[in-house]
């Protein structure tokens, strides 16, 4: 128990770790709140409906908190994009250009979201809806590119795995299996987020606006928990 508490404290001491915790609580609250309000509406349970609405409001506030915190992410993203450049260190050309396009989409996402936030806060006199749309499109584009990148990585890993199965090397095969599992988790996480991104598009686009709150929360919670698994796996590999 004490070790779990210490791990949580260490996680909260980092910006990325704190963001993952806030994200999980945000979507978890939306999942439970949406389920309670739906159940209460069917059974006319006033107390459950009140609790559900409170959790949905709490989720909205946490989402707003994350938006404000992202006001300071531009420079770190720019530093990462600059260090990656055109991906000269990548052996595969497909991975290189997918990563470059992903970095471009991520870099453009932040100013669009900042403008939308500033418009909602009445700091600038523009309509926020089109800027929220731009940011959602860029987020969805980044997620789609991430899925394509993971599929490309899986293809390359399977080729390496076949080669090592012929040549032997058990430890190397185990490492490749772990990488394959990590990429499959990344695909699942990105697909969950991409489903939500489509939901937040204007009505008439695929399933836009058709998800109930609990389903949005479920998809976001799934993605967040996968993020925790990946973070824990990365920490374990670094300690090894």
TrEMBL record:
<dbReference type="InterPro" id="IPR008733">
    <property type="entry name" value="PEX11"/>
</dbReference>
<dbReference type="Pfam" id="PF05648">
    <property type="entry name" value="PEX11"/>
</dbReference>
<protein>
    <recommendedName>
        <fullName>Peroxisomal membrane protein 11C</fullName>
    </recommendedName>
</protein>
<dbReference type="GO" id="GO:0016559">
    <property type="term" value="P:peroxisome fission"/>
</dbReference>
<feature type="transmembrane region" description="Helical">
    <location>
        <begin position="211"/>
        <end position="229"/>
    </location>
</feature>
<keyword id="KW-1133">Transmembrane helix</keyword>
<keyword id="KW-0472">Membrane</keyword>
<keyword id="KW-0576">Peroxisome</keyword>
<feature type="transmembrane region" description="Helical">
    <location>
        <begin position="131"/>
        <end position="155"/>
    </location>
</feature>
<dbReference type="GO" id="GO:0005778">
    <property type="term" value="C:peroxisomal membrane"/>
</dbReference>
<dbReference type="InterPro" id="IPR026510">
    <property type="entry name" value="PEX11C_met"/>
</dbReference>
<keyword id="KW-0812">Transmembrane</keyword>
């Amino acid at each position: 128990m004490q070790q779990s508490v210490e791990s949580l404290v260490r996680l909260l001491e980092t910006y990325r770790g704190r963001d993952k915790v806030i994200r999980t609580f945000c979507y978890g609250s939306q999942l439970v709140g949406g389920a309670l309000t739906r159940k209460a509406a069917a059974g006319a349970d006033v107390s459950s409906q009140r609790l559900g609405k409170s959790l949905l409001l709490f989720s909205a506030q946490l989402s707003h908190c994350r938006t404000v915190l992202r006001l300071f992410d531009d420079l770190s993203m720019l530093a990462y994009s600059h260090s990656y450049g055109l991906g000269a260190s990548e052996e595969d050309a497909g991975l290189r250009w997918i990563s470059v396009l992903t970095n471009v989409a991520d870099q453009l996402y932040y100013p669009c979201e900042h403008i939308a936030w500033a418009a909602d806060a009445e700091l600038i006199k523009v309509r926020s809806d089109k800027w929220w749309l731009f940011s959602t499109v860029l987020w969805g584009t980044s997620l789609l590119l991430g899925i394509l990148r993971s599929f490309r990585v899986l293809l390359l890993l399977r080729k390496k795995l076949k080669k090592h199965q012929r040549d032997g090397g058990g430890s190397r095969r185990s490492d490749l299996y772990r990488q394959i599992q990590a990429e499959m988790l990344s695909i699942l996480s990105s697909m969950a987020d991409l489903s939500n991104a489509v939901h937040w598009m204007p009505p008439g686009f695929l399933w836009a606006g058709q998800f109930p709150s609990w389903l949005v929360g479920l998809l976001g919670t799934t993605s967040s928990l996968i993020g925790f698994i990946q973070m824990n796996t990365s920490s374990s590999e670094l300690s090894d």
